[in-house]
Specification:
Layout (H helix, E strand, L loop, with lengths): L2 H16 L8 H14 L8 H8 L3 H9 L5 H16 L5 E10 L9 E5 L4 E15 L2 E9 L3 H5 L1 H6 L11 H14 L6 E4 L1 H4 L2 H9 L4 E5 L4 E3 L5 E2 L15 E2 L7 E2 H7 L1 H4 L4 E8 L2 E15 L5 E12 L6 E6 L7 H8 L3 H14 L9 H25 L21 E2 L2
Parallel strand pairs: 1-5, 5-6
Antiparallel strand pairs: 1-3, 2-3, 3-4, 6-14, 7-10, 7-12, 8-9, 11-12, 11-15, 12-13, 13-14
Helix pairs in contact: 2-3, 2-15, 3-4, 4-15, 5-15, 14-15
Length: about 425
């Protein structure tokens, strides 16, 4: 970036923040919004309310109240952000990415805080967990939405929730349900995802995959080794069966003598159709440590549904890291049957986009530096952090120069753009 481009940033930021003017009915509240975003975009070492306020020459309480108590339309700000991404940053081959992040917190009054698995630390820690929906198209990526995961013990203690300002209608929801709500909210704002991808924490929930299928959303989801189904689907019968005594068997049911469903791990070990298939190498992308090459096997499977019967027919992609053969990943997809393995791989290995968003938002704009005890303050902080990050993504897109198209995404219904490369 040259000196002239740097001089353009102030005018760019002023125009950008002006897009959100109708979210604030008062001029002083609108000014606090600008102060907060400019503070997150500054070179301050710490980006919580106090250092941002002191750098701007205002009392820290002003920004704390702006987050926790001032009246302004935070939901409208989130809608506006998604509208802007749709209008100016969307493109073909777009990917929605579901993931979560955690932030270590002290004490017990921060909304949702408890000792739970903390991915940031890789161990159980006193922290909060937030679920997010990312968006990627071409070289552009950002976060569209995020919401707090409220643990069950918090949800059951409504007095504790009220003390933290958590509304009575905000209760415990499994993380996959939160992700689905984020997805539905974005779709309600006309954001389109040609693909959606997630890790095994979400892909391992058949209910989540069924809900995406019901919404006609094409997905590539990582699944755990325990994910269950058939390579050759078992037959189902509606024929009633009655014993001489007692109740008859329920219908529909598997035909007597049918092979039971097995895990994808055992498919790889014991099913000849997959076990005896040779590994094929693919160059997925170039990472920070060099080329990422994975060996792959591919087959179609039928998933076991909640009644124990054959359900969705999906692609199963088994990927093994060439440098670490013990590192094996399993992915499933409801993409059309003719979709190439290269395409499925490229989508499957796109989650780095949302991980990069988390890393940048924590290092650059202070996603993990919220300090407060009110649920509304956290909700607004998540929205404002996405607003700040979107501006950075815009600057990178407009002023950072064009990059190679080699890693751009193929479409669900045809490889219009370069995909993963087959390694001879």
């Amino acid at each position: 970036m040259d000196a002239e481009q740097i001089r353009q940033l102030r005018a760019m930021l002023t125009r950008y923040l002006g897009e959100f003017d109708d979210c604030f009915s008062r001029r002083d509240t609108r000014a606090r919004f600008s102060t907060y975003v400019e503070g997150q975009l500054s070179d301050l070492g710490e980006k919580s309310c106090e250092p941002i306020a002191l750098a701007a020459g205002i009392p820290p309480r002003n920004l704390q109240e702006f987050l926790a108590t001032y009246k302004w339309k935070e939901d409208r700000a989130r809608e506006r952000l998604q509208e802007m991404v749709l209008r100016e940053d969307s493109g073909p081959n777009s990917i929605g990415i579901v993931d979560e992040t955690s932030d270590v917190k002290k004490g017990h009054k921060t909304p949702g805080v408890k000792r739970q698995w903390c991915g940031t630390r890789g161990k159980t820690e006193n922290c909060i967990v937030t679920v997010h929906l990312g968006y990627a198209s071409g070289d552009f990526h950002c976060l569209l939405d995020g919401d707090l995961f409220l643990p069950e013990d918090w949800s059951a203690d409504r007095e504790r929730c009220r003390a933290a300002g958590i509304p009575d209608d905000v209760v415990y929801r499994p993380k996959w349900k939160i992700a689905l709500e984020l997805y539905d909210r974005a779709r309600g704002n006309d954001v389109v995802f040609e693909w959606l991808t997630c890790d095994e924490g979400y892909g391992g929930k058949p209910e989540f995959l069924r809900e995406l299928e019901a919404r006609r959303q094409v997905f590539v989801a990582e699944v755990p080794t325990t994910f269950t189904g058939w390579i050759d689907a078992a037959r189902v019968t509606e024929r009633p069966f009655r014993r001489a005594k007692g109740r008859g068997r329920k219908t529909p049911r598997l035909v007597s003598g049918s092979r039971p469903a097995i895990t994808v791990e055992n498919m790889l070990k014991y099913s000849p159709a997959l076990r005896d298939q040779r590994w094929v190498r693919y160059h997925v992308k170039d990472g920070e440590k060099g080329p990422m090459v994975w060996e792959v096997k591919h087959i179609r499977i039928t998933v076991k549904d909640e009644q124990g019967l054959p359900g969705m027919r999906l692609h199963l992609v088994v990927a093994r890291n060439v440098l670490e053969p013990e590192k094996i990943k399993f992915f499933v997809s409801n993409a059309p049957a003719h979709t190439s393995v290269q395409t499925l791989l490229r989508v499957a290995f796109s989650r780095w986009r949302v991980e990069r968003c988390f890393e940048d938002q924590k290092q650059e704009v202070g996603l993990d530096q919220w300090e407060g005890r009110r649920w509304l303050g956290l909700k607004r902080h998540l929205i404002l952090t996405s607003v700040s990050y979107l501006f950075l993504a815009r600057v990178r897109k407009e002023l950072g120069g064009k990059k190679s198209r080699a890693n751009r995404m193929p479409g669900a219904y045809g490889s219009r753009i370069t995909s993963a490369e087959l390694v001879a």
